[in-house]
Amino acid sequence: MLQQILSNTPVWVWVLLAFLVQRGVQASRDREVNLRTLLILPLMMLGLSLNSLAQHYSLTSWPVMLWGGTMLLTGWVVAQRMRPEQMERISADQFRLQGSWMPLVLMMAIFVGKYVESVALAIVPALGQQTAYVAVSSLFFGVLNGVFFARVWRLQMLTQAPKQVQIA
User: Cα(112)–Cα(109) distance, rounded to whole angstroms?
Assistant: First the structure.
């Protein structure tokens, strides 16, 4: 059965996986990045989650509200708790970020979650009608997307704050 699942997976899924792994490895290194560039991956992950919701549950229903509320709450809480040494504002929209494996972990969790969800619903379509299953899926993707957006949210907060000048 596993062989059948893997062989029926479209090629673009494996290309996406390779891209996400490559970006996750990049994020593990200290680097300088602008806010727009940093938005690319969270927006991609947001798109994957919204795609799952639209494909399996409908975008006009309570799963989207549950997902969105969970994402906002999680993002806000995590952004408030981020350590200042993880990021430094070096110009109006340029930041120095401490490397972290967390983006790779989050991307893999969203990727694997979407993959497993798609396989489960292909095998047992009735799962998409079960309230508990839909709620857990919405919460799962909401939490992961919230954590992913927390860094961007925190950097956005830094752009609103005046740049601190260190005096030697």
Answer: 5
3-state SS, 22-82, equals HHHHHHCCCEEEEHHHHHHHHHHHHHHHHHHHHHHCCCCCHHHHHHHHHHHHHHHHHHHHC
**CB 68, CB 142: distance < 8 Å:** yes
Structure tokens at 113: 């979650």
What global pTM score does this model have?
Answer: 0.78
State pLDDT tens for residues 24-83. Answer: 999 899 988 887 887 888 888 788 788 878 877 766 688 889 999 999 999 999 988 877
Side-chain half-sphere CA neighbours of 8 within 13 A: 10
Question: Distance from CA of residue 86 to its chain's centroid?
Answer: 18
Residue whose token pair is 């560039």: 37
DSSP type of residue 100: -
36 backbone φψ class: left, alpha, beta (φ>0; ψ -120 to 50):
alpha
The neighbour count for residue 104, using CB atoms within 10 Å, is 18
Q: What are phi and psi of 48, to 5 degrees?
A: -60, -40
In whole angstroms, give the CA distance from residue 117 to residue 111: 10
